[in-house]
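User: Let's play a game. I give you a shape written as C-alpha cells, and you guess the letters that built it. Ready? Here's round one.
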C-alpha cells in the first residue's frame, strides 16, 4: 500500500515537471508561430509585385466622315480622322478651333511642337527616377490609329490610347489548332470561310517545300509539339477589322489575344508605355463641357500619370490676329496677342496657390490665382473657360507667339498625381520619387462659355451669372451698405523671448488688450468711421503664432472672458461687426500640453513623413532649416479646429475669421485616410455653407472663389497680382462679378509697403479699406520676428486713417451697394470704373502726369477723382 502510494507521488512529480517544462516552451512557440506567419505573409503578399495592368489600345472603325452635333446655340464639327473639331457660334458665325489652325505648316515650330499644336490632349507621365515625358494625342494616338470615337446623343466621347505603338487588331496572330477549331465553331459559315482563308496552317511533320523549318521553329516555338494557324502577312487592314468583329462576336477577349501573341516570338507583348484616357465633349446651351474622368485613365504600373492638359491650344491665334488672353492674375489681367514680349517669361500661376502638403527645397516666388477662370477674345467674340471640377489641381499657362511657335495660347494643366523625392543619400545613383498610388475617383470638368463680344466686362458679368447659377442666388444678394466697408485688424499679442531666472523663455507680448480695442472702435466711430468689421488677431493660444485650436484659451493680459464680453458689447453699440481670427490648418509651437502630437496630428507628405514646414530665405530662396518648424494639420483635425473656433465665436455672439481657409488649400496623405486637394476643398465648402445657413458671420482672407458665396467679408484680397512683365493690363475681372454682393478689401494700407498704390488700387477695384492696428508702439516689437507690424501703431496712424476714410467715404460710400458695370483702361496710367448709378471713378497711377478727364476736370498724378451723375 505504502509502495503504491509512493509510486503515485513519483508519477505526480514527473507529471508536474513535464507540465512546467511544457509551459516554458509555450511563449517561444507562440513567438515562433507569429514570426512564421509574418514571414509567410511577407513572402506571399508584401514582396509580391502587383500584377501589371492590361491596357488595350483603342481602334477607330469609323468611315472617316465628319461628325456633327449641335443645339440651338452651337455647332460642333469633328474631323473623325484627327479628332480635331470646331465650335461655331450660330449667332455670329464665329468659328473656334480645338487645335492651332494650320499648325502643320508653321515654319516657326519644331516638329515636336507641331504635334502638340495639333492635339486635343497632352498627357505627361513619369517614372520612379523622376524623368517626365509628354505624349500628345496627334503624335502618339492619331498617327498610330489607336483611338476611338463614340457618339451618345449630344456628347462625343474621345477615347485615346497614347503610346509609341502600332495600331492593334484583336485577332490572334498565332493560334493552336484546337483553339482555332473551337473559335470557328462559334462563328457563322461566312466568317469561318474568311478566317480559314486568311490563316495558314503549319504542321512541323507536313511542311511545304518553301517553308523554312528552322525559321518557323525559331519564330513559333509551339510548332514543336502542336499544329498552329498563323495570320497571313498579306491580310489587308479592312479584312483585319472584319475578322476582329467575327472573333469578338465569338467571345474572343483582349486577354486571350495577349496569350496568343506569346506564341509568336516576333509578337511579344510590348513593355512600352501606353495610356488610355477618355475625354467627353458635350454641348449645353451656349457652353461646351469638356470632361476627363480619372477612372478612365489606364496605364502600366511602372508609369505614373503626372498631368493632363485638355485642349491645350483651343482658340490659339497666330501672327496678325488681334485680340487678347484673359488670365486670373490678381483680380484679372490681359495679355495682348503678339505683344512682342518674348524676352519675358510666359505667364504661369497655380490655382489657389501652392499645396503645402508637397515639400519644396526652395521658393523664389509663390504664384497664386484665387479664381479658376481664363479665356480669349478675338474677332468680335470671346470665350471663358470655367474650371468646374478638379480646379485645385490646375495651373494656368499663357504665352504669346514667337517663342516656341507662331501661336498665342492659354490653357490649364492639371497635376493629377502628386510626387515627392525620397531622401536616400548615397544609396542610389539616381533620384527616387514616390507617387500617389491611385488617382482619386474624381473628374476634371472645363466649361467653355462663348460670348458675342470681346469686352472683358461682359465676360465678367457672364462669370457672375455662372456664380449665381452654381451656388444659388440666395447667397448673392445686393447689400444695403451706405458707407465704405472697413476692415480694422487689431493685433492682440505676439510671442517674445524673455529672460526668466536667466533662462530664455517664449512668452506672449500683449499689444492691444480688449479694453484698448474697444476704445479704438469707439474713437474711430466718434470720428465718423462707419461700417467697421473688426478682426481680432492674436487673442488666443499664444498670440499671432497661434498654438493648436483643440482647446481655446485667451492670452493672459488681454482681459479674459469678461473683457471679451465687454468688447463685444462695445462693438455692437458702435454698429461694428467683431470677428475672432484663428488659424485652423496649421499649428505653431504646440506641445503635448496643447493636445498636439506631431506623429498623430500632422498631415503627411507622400513619403509618409510629417508635413513639417519652414520659412524660406528672401536672399537665397532656400528653406531656413534653422527656423522653428510648424506643421500642416491632418485634415480631420483642421476641420475640428475650425468647428471649435466657430463654436467659441457663436458662444460669444461674434463672427469668426479664418486666417487660412479661403486662402490656403492643401492635400493630406495621412496613412489611414488620404484627402485629395479636391476633398479638402469640398470639406471647407461644406463647413462654410453649413454655418452660413446657420447665420454665422464669417470672414476669410484672399477669397478663393469656392468660398465667396458663403462669407460676409473678404480681407487681404490680392487686387493687382504680381505685375508680371508679360501682362499688358491688370483689370478687376473678379471684382466686376462680385462687387455689391460681397464686401472685400485689399491689403492693410498702413503695413503693405506702399500705401498710396494700395489706396489707388482699392479705388479702381471697388474695394473697402483695411488697416492693421495695435495700441503699443512699434518699438515694443524690437527683438521679435514680427516686423510686419512696424507700421501698425494706432496712435501714429489714426489721424491719417480718419482723413483717408473720410474722403473715401464721402466720395465713394454710395457705390458699395451696387454693381460695377464698366471698367476702362484709358492709357498706361489711367483707369476708369463705372457703377450702376452712373458714378465714374478715375484713377491716375502716374507719378508725374495729370490727366484731363472727359468731364473737363483734372485727375492729378497719384490720385483719384469721382464724377457723380448729375
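Assistant: Ready! My guess for every position:
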Amino acid at each position: 500500500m505504502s509502495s503504491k502510494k509512493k509510486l503515485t507521488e513519483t508519477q505526480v512529480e514527473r507529471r508536474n515537471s513535464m507540465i512546467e517544462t511544457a509551459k516554458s516552451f509555450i511563449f517561444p512557440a507562440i513567438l515562433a508561430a507569429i514570426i512564421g506567419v509574418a514571414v509567410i505573409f511577407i513572402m506571399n503578399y508584401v514582396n509580391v509585385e502587383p500584377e501589371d495592368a492590361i491596357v488595350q489600345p483603342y481602334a477607330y472603325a469609323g468611315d472617316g466622315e465628319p461628325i456633327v452635333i449641335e443645339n440651338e446655340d452651337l455647332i460642333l464639327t469633328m474631323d473623325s480622322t484627327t479628332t480635331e473639331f470646331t465650335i461655331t457660334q450660330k449667332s455670329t458665325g464665329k468659328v473656334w478651333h480645338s487645335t492651332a489652325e494650320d499648325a502643320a505648316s508653321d515654319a516657326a515650330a519644331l516638329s515636336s511642337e507641331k504635334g502638340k499644336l495639333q492635339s486635343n490632349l497632352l498627357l505627361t507621365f513619369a517614372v520612379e527616377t523622376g524623368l517626365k515625358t509628354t505624349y500628345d494625342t496627334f503624335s502618339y494616338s492619331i498617327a498610330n490609329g489607336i483611338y476611338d470615337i463614340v457618339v451618345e446623343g449630344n456628347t462625343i466621347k474621345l477615347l485615346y490610347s497614347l503610346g509609341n505603338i502600332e495600331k492593334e487588331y484583336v485577332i490572334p496572330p498565332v493560334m493552336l489548332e484546337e483553339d482555332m477549331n473551337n473559335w470557328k465553331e462559334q462563328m457563322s459559315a461566312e466568317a469561318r470561310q474568311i478566317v480559314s482563308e486568311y490563316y495558314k496552317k503549319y504542321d512541323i511533320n507536313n511542311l511545304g517545300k518553301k517553308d523554312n523549318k528552322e525559321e518557323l521553329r525559331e519564330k513559333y516555338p509551339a510548332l514543336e509539339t502542336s499544329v498552329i494557324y498563323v495570320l497571313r502577312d498579306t491580310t489587308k487592314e479592312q479584312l483585319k477589322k472584319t475578322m476582329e468583329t467575327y472573333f469578338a462576336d465569338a467571345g474572343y477577349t483582349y486577354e486571350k489575344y495577349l496569350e496568343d501573341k506569346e506564341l509568336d516570338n516576333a509578337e511579344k507583348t510590348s513593355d512600352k508605355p501606353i495610356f488610355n484616357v477618355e475625354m467627353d465633349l458635350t454641348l449645353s446651351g451656349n457652353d461646351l463641357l469638356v470632361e476627363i474622368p480619372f477612372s478612365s485613365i489606364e496605364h502600366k504600373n511602372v508609369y505614373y500619370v503626372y498631368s493632363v492638359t485638355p485642349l491645350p491650344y483651343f482658340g490659339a491665334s497666330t501672327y496678325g490676329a488681334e485680340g487678347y488672353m484673359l488670365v486670373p492674375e490678381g483680380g484679372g489681367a490681359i495679355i495682348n496677342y503678339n505683344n512682342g514680349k518674348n524676352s519675358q517669361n510666359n505667364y504661369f500661376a497655380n490655382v489657389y496657390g501652392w499645396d503645402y502638403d508637397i515639400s519644396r527645397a526652395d521658393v523664389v516666388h509663390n504664384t497664386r490665382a484665387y479664381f479658376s477662370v481664363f479665356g480669349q477674345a478675338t474677332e468680335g467674340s470671346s470665350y471663358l473657360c470655367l474650371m468646374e471640377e478638379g480646379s485645385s489641381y490646375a495651373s494656368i499657362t499663357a504665352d504669346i507667339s514667337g517663342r516656341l511657335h507662331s501661336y498665342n495660347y492659354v490653357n490649364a494643366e492639371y497635376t493629377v498625381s502628386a510626387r515627392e523625392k525620397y531622401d536616400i543619400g548615397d544609396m542610389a545613383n539616381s533620384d527616387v520619387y514616390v507617387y500617389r498610388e491611385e488617382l482619386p475617383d474624381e473628374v476634371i470638368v472645363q466649361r467653355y462659355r462663348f460670348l458675342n463680344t470681346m469686352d472683358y466686362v461682359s465676360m465678367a458679368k457672364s462669370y457672375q451669372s455662372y456664380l449665381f447659377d452654381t451656388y444659388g442666388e440666395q447667397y448673392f444678394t445686393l447689400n444695403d451698405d451706405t458707407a465704405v466697408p472697413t476692415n480694422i485688424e487689431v493685433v492682440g499679442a505676439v510671442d517674445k523671448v524673455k529672460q526668466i531666472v536667466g533662462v530664455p523663455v517664449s512668452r506672449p507680448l500683449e499689444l492691444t488688450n480688449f479694453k484698448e480695442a474697444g476704445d479704438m472702435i469707439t474713437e474711430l466711430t466718434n470720428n465718423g468711421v462707419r461700417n467697421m468689421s473688426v478682426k481680432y488677431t492674436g487673442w488666443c493660444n499664444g498670440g499671432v503664432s497661434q498654438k493648436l485650436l483643440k482647446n481655446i484659451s485667451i492670452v493672459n493680459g488681454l482681459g479674459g472672458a469678461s473683457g471679451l464680453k465687454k468688447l463685444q458689447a462695445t462693438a455692437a453699440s458702435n454698429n461694428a461687426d467683431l470677428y475672432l481670427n484663428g488659424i485652423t490648418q496649421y499649428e505653431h509651437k504646440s506641445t503635448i500640453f496643447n493636445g498636439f502630437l506631431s506623429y498623430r496630428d500632422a498631415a503627411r507628405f507622400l513619403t509618409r513623413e510629417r508635413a513639417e514646414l519652414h520659412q524660406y530665405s528672401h536672399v537665397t530662396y532656400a528653406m531656413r532649416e534653422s527656423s522653428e518648424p510648424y506643421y500642416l494639420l491632418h485634415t480631420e483635425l483642421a476641420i475640428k479646429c475650425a468647428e471649435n473656433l466657430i463654436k467659441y465665436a457663436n458662444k460669444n455672439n461674434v463672427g469668426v475669421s479664418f486666417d487660412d481657409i479661403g486662402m490656403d488649400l492643401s492635400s493630406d496623405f495621412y496613412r489611414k485616410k488620404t484627402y485629395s486637394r479636391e476633398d479638402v476643398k469640398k470639406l471647407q465648402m461644406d463647413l462654410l455653407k453649413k454655418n452660413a445657413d446657420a447665420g454665422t458671420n464669417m470672414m476669410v482672407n484672399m477669397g478663393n472663389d469656392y468660398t465667396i458665396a458663403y462669407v460676409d467679408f473678404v480681407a487681404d484680397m490680392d487686387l493687382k497680382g504680381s505685375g508680371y512683365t508679360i501682362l499688358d493690363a491688370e483689370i478687376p475681372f473678379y471684382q466686376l462679378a462680385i462687387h455689391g454682393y460681397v464686401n472685400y478689401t485689399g491689403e492693410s494700407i498702413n503695413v503693405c509697403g506702399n500705401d498710396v498704390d494700395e489706396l489707388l488700387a482699392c479705388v479702381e477695384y471697388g474695394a473697402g479699406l483695411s488697416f492693421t492696428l495695435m495700441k503699443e508702439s512699434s518699438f515694443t516689437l524690437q527683438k521679435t520676428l514680427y516686423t510686419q507690424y512696424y507700421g501698425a501703431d494706432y496712435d501714429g496712424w489714426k489721424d491719417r486713417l480718419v482723413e483717408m476714410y473720410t474722403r473715401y467715404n464721402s466720395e465713394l460710400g454710395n457705390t458699395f451697394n451696387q454693381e460695377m458695370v464698366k471698367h476702362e483702361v484709358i492709357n498706361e496710367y489711367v483707369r476708369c470704373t463705372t457703377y450702376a448709378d452712373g458714378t465714374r471713378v478715375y484713377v491716375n497711377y502716374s507719378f508725374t502726369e495729370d490727366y484731363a478727364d472727359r468731364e473737363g476736370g483734372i485727375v492729378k498724378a497719384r490720385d483719384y477723382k469721382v464724377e457723380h451723375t448729375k
